[in-house]
Amino acid sequence: MRRLSGLVPAAFVFVCREVNKMEAWIRRIDIFSKSIGHTFAWCVLILTASTCYEVFMRYVLNRPTDWAFDMSYMMYGALFMMSGCYALSRNAHVRGDFIYRKWSNRTQAKVDLTLYALFYFPAIFAMVFTGAQYGYESMRILESSVNSPAGVPVWPLKMVIFVAGITLLIAGVSEAMRCLVCIRTGEWLSRSGDVEELEQVLINQHAEKA
Questions:
Q1: Gap between the Cα atoms of 110 and 69, Å rounded
Q2: Residue 175 to residue 116: CA distance in whole angstroms
Q3: CA nearest neighbour of 64 among 124, 150, 6, 4
Q4: The three-state (H, E, C) secondary structure of 92-127, written as one string
Q5: Under DSSP, is residue 90 helix (H, G, I), strand (E, B) or coil?
Q6: Phi, psi of 144 (to 5 degrees)
Q7: Which residues contact residue 163 at a Cβ distance below 8 angstroms, ignoring those fewer than 6 apart?
Q8: Which of 3, 40, 164, 194 is the 20 to 30 A CA-CA neighbour of 57?
Q9: Helix (H, G, I), strand (E, B) or coil at 49
Q10: Are residues 155 and 139 in contact, defined by beta-carbon separation less than 8 angstroms?
Q11: How would you write the pLDDT of the chain (210 residues) with one tens digit per residue?
């Protein structure tokens, strides 16, 4: 009995230490994902500026550019792929949660962890592997766009597929650890504060008034 009574506190301390370690890594990865998202958010301004410039050149000066189309899909493609890890860290991806939200936190975490293991990580590993091959081959031949006479290089965009896969893999590890913490503690680890959608801000304000 004495041995058992000594093992229980030791096991509790071990679990607490492991949870604290995972929480620290989750925070670090969330900061990393946030940095990636904020960095590539500048693509929106570049995309907007290039589009406005093209409209002015085309309809005012009647001298359309030969690079605007390539610029638009490259900027949008980079923004779309590289913001995936940020959206995942903010739990901003679309979720059909009409059943999910009725479950307990531990059940939600177990289901999420299972789905990550069965679907998310295999898909991301495939994205990283194929993206590396695809991007390397494009970089090797210095592939350029065939959609315009400007010959805009497109191999950087294709390398983004591989880089985006790496960031999604790192963010997925963070989410898997978040599930493990929830399974052990029964509570979801809070997410770091950042920009909120206006709809969510209004919902929070209404809840505070109520």
A1: 45
A2: 9
A3: 150
A4: CCCCCCCCHHHCCHHHHHHHHHHHHHHHHHHHHHHH
A5: coil
A6: -125, 165
A7: 82
A8: 40
A9: helix
A10: yes
A11: 444 444 434 444 445 577 788 899 999 999 999 999 999 999 899 999 989 999 999 999 888 888 888 888 888 999 989 999 999 998 887 777 778 888 899 999 999 999 999 999 999 999 999 999 999 999 999 888 877 777 888 898 899 999 999 999 999 999 999 999 999 998 998 887 666 666 666 666 766 776
User: What length is written for the chain?
Assistant: 210
Which backbone phi and psi does 153 adopt, to 5 degrees?
Answer: -65, 130
Of 128, 110, 37, which Cα lies nearest the Cα of 78?
Answer: 37
Instruction: Give the residue among 177, 167, 172 at the shortest CA–CA distance from 20.
Output: 177
